[in-house]
Structure formats: C-alpha cells, structure tokens
C-alpha cells in the first residue's frame, strides 16, 4: 500500500473537476562507458534546472538536481496486487543535450531508476515529489524521424523485483551449484539426466 502526501492526494482527487498538471522526476544511475563508474543524472518534465528534495526509497529525503527541457513524459504507472510485470515508459526528446549525454555517454543497460511525481497548481508544486517507481532500464530504443520530424527515445523501466522473479536460472537445479552450498548435497545429482529424459516416469 502507498501512502501519499495529503496535498498530493487532494490534487489527484480534485482532478476530474479542477484538472491536473502532472510533474515527473526521473533519476537514472548509468555507467560511464569508459571507466564503468556510476554516474547519476536527474531529468524532469519542466523547462528549467531545479534542485529539490525527493523521498529516497529508504525513507529519508534527499536533495537532487534535475535538468529540464528534455520533453520528458512518463506513461504506464500502474499498481497491482499480483506479480504482473508492468513496464513503465519514459519518453525523452532525442535532440535535447542532456538526453544525448545520457544515451551516448552512459551505458544504461540495467541502470537503476527512480521515478517521482507530484502535481502543479498555480505555478507551484502541490507537494514534494512522491516516490512512484523503482526499477531498472530494460530497453531504450531510439526512433529515427522522417525529414522535418523530431526523434525520441523511450526507456522501458521494469521493476527489478519482478524482473528477478521472472528470470530462469539453471543454477537453481545445477548439481555443481548445490554442492557449493554443501558438499554432501545430492538433491540435483541427476538434474542433467532427467532434463534430457523423454520417457514419462509414470509409464515405466
């Protein structure tokens, strides 16, 4: 369950009558392509650069710098009660300098991502940005526009927990892996043989 700031929740509740101006903040930690060092970069849906406190997943507030003017939009934020793996899409303008720095200067494969959001009323934020999503970059296709068009990049952000739960790992049923845990563990001793066996055991 997610508990939102009272002012933020009130602005969402009033949206059908008063309208709503959503504001998103995206924090990405990529890796320098040459050194491999972690490099964080903050982008938001506004036009200017700002420094603002956001809620860290650990609970404490953290002041960060966010760059605007990059055409950022966020779609697909959904909250479910099951293990459905819903990807969130973060779209960016390909001609914005910060975006070129992001996709050309950094390796974004499995980069850590935090998405915060709030709303804006009368030119002011209704609350501090609220944490909405924590995940990893799963894909980042760059679209090539037609002549006179504007290209873009759409980062697919998946929940790291759901990604890990959905992955298959041969090590789970490997005899060698089991024996690293305990030399006398014979639970997977016949795993390779059974995996290749085509005879149904109950018919033998």
Q: How are the elements arranged and paired?
A:
Layout: H1 6-13, H2 15-18, E1 22-32, E2 38-44, E3 50-55, E4 61-66, E5 73-75, E6 88-93, H3 97-105, E7 106-121, E8 124-125, E9 130-139, E10 142-143, E11 152-158, H4 160-166, H5 175-181, H6 191-196
Antiparallel strand pairs: 1-2, 1-7, 3-4, 5-6, 6-11, 7-8, 7-9, 9-11, 10-11
Helix content: 10-25%
User: Which class best fits the helix and strand makeup?
Assistant: alpha+beta
Q: Over the alpha carbons, how many angstroms does the gyration radius reach? A: 22 Å
Total strands: 11
Q: Could you give the order of the helices and strands?
A: HHEEEEEEHEEEEEHHH
Shape designation: globular
Provide a descriptive summary of the structure in words.
The chain is α+β, with helices and mostly antiparallel strands and 204 residues long. The protein contains 6 helices and 11 strands. It has helices spanning 6-13, 15-18, 97-105, 160-166, 175-181, 191-196, and strands spanning 22-32, 38-44, 50-55, 61-66, 73-75, 88-93, 106-121, 124-125, 130-139, 142-143, 152-158. The strands form 2 sheets. Strands 1, 2, 5, 6, 7, 8, 9, 10 and 11 form a 9-stranded antiparallel beta sheet that branches. Strands 3-4 form a two-stranded antiparallel ribbon. Strand 1 (22-32) and strand 2 (38-44) form a beta hairpin. The longest helix is centred in the middle third of the chain and has 9 residues, at 97-105. The radius of gyration is 22 Å and the shape is globular.
């Amino acid at each position: 369950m997610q508990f939102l700031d009272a002012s933020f929740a009130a602005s969402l509740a009033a949206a059908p009558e008063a309208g709503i101006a959503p504001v998103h903040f995206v924090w990405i930690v990529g890796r320098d392509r040459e050194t491999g060092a972690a490099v964080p970069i903050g982008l938001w849906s506004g036009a200017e650069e700002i420094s603002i406190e956001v809620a860290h997943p650990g609970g404490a507030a953290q002041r960060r710098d966010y760059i605007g003017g990059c055409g950022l939009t966020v779609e697909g934020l959904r909250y479910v009660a099951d293990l459905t793996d819903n990807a969130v899409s973060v779209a960016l303008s390909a001609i914005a300098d910060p975006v070129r720095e992001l996709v050309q200067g950094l390796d974004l494969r499995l980069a850590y991502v935090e998405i915060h959001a709030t709303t804006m009323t009368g030119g002011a934020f209704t609350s501090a940005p609220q944490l909405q999503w924590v995940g990893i970059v799963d894909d980042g296709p760059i679209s090539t526009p037609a002549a006179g068009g504007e290209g873009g990049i759409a980062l697919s952000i998946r929940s790291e927990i759901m990604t890990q739960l959905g992955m298959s790992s041969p090590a789970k049923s490997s005899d060698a892996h089991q024996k690293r845990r305990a030399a006398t563990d014979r639970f997977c001793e016949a795993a390779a043989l059974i995996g290749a066996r085509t005879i149904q055991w109950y018919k033998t």
